[in-house]
Design brief:
single chain, 260 residues, 11 helices
């Protein structure tokens, strides 16, 4: 599939684009807050663009874009920034090879090496999910020794520990933030019109990408600890969807945000 920015000009012309993590963020918070946020998006689709930025894999996104009540995103950045896909219709999520090419190139030959070394690290279990350009592990309840990851880091990859539950191994320099910046540049989306939202440490690159950002209420403490003080970063009181609504209003990112 050839990727030409002119074909996808519509989202670039929208007044506001929400780029949001899913678990604990867009899918988090009270049912009332989620309904308010989702209705706000659906009622203003002519002026609001939506990008899911998640650690989940494309199959999970496929299922959730075919779920009643959840707004359909325009694009998806999945697998912690290593998959870039366009959402054509409910349940149809197609990766964009031209945008993924440098990611795929950076991962060539890495998967087997990483898996071999990670098998020697106690306290980690490879996740039961399809992988494309990354590997992800669950941390056992008893934890593990992070210093055991030193040989893996020497492979010229990035290793990210988040929520004291997950370890992601990614191509060097690839994560949610850099991938999102590349996507909005190609789509012609002004950085000033984007709000990023997240709640765990694997969202840090997205929340520090020099875009408007919100760490929703109840975020991982390690994320709060590493977030710099910036007028572009909002630490919300509201959890999940309520925190996103709070940030949209705080940054005055949409003409109707005062009605929340």
């Amino acid at each position: 599939m050839t990727f030409h920015s002119a074909i996808y000009k519509a989202i670039g012309d929208k007044d506001f684009v929400l780029a949001t993590d899913l678990d604990g963020t867009f899918l988090g918070g009270s049912a009332e807050a989620r309904e308010t946020l989702y209705n706000f998006i659906e009622e203003n689709r002519d002026t609001i663009g939506l990008i899911f930025v998640t650690g989940r894999h494309p199959e999970f996104i496929h299922d959730h874009t075919d779920t009643y009540g959840i707004p359909l995103p325009d694009y998806v950045i999945a697998d912690v920034g290593t998959t870039i896909a366009q959402v054509l219709s409910p349940g149809i999520v197609l990766p964009v090879p031209t945008l993924e090419a440098p990611i795929a190139h950076a991962w060539v030959g890495k998967a087997d090496q990483v898996q071999s070394l990670m098998a020697k690290v106690d306290g980690l279990t490879l996740q039961d999910t399809p992988f494309r350009h990354r590997l992800s592990y669950d941390i056992s309840p008893n934890g593990f020794d992070a210093t055991d990851l030193a040989p893996v880091r020497e492979l010229d990859v990035d290793v990210l520990i988040s929520d004291n539950r997950f370890v992601d191994v990614l191509p060097k320099g690839v994560s949610k933030g850099p991938t999102l910046r590349r996507l909005i540049n190609v789509l012609g989306i002004s950085a000033e019109r984007v709000l990023t939202a997240g709640d765990t440490l694997n969202d840090i690159s997205m929340l520090t990408a020099d875009l408007h950002a919100v760490a929703v209420g109840g975020s991982e403490q390690a994320l709060y600890d590493q977030l710099p003080t910036s007028p572009k970063i909002h630490r919300a009181r509201g959890e999940g969807a309520a925190g996103i609504l709070e940030a949209i209003a705080a940054f005055d990112l949409h003409p109707t945000s005062g009605s929340f």
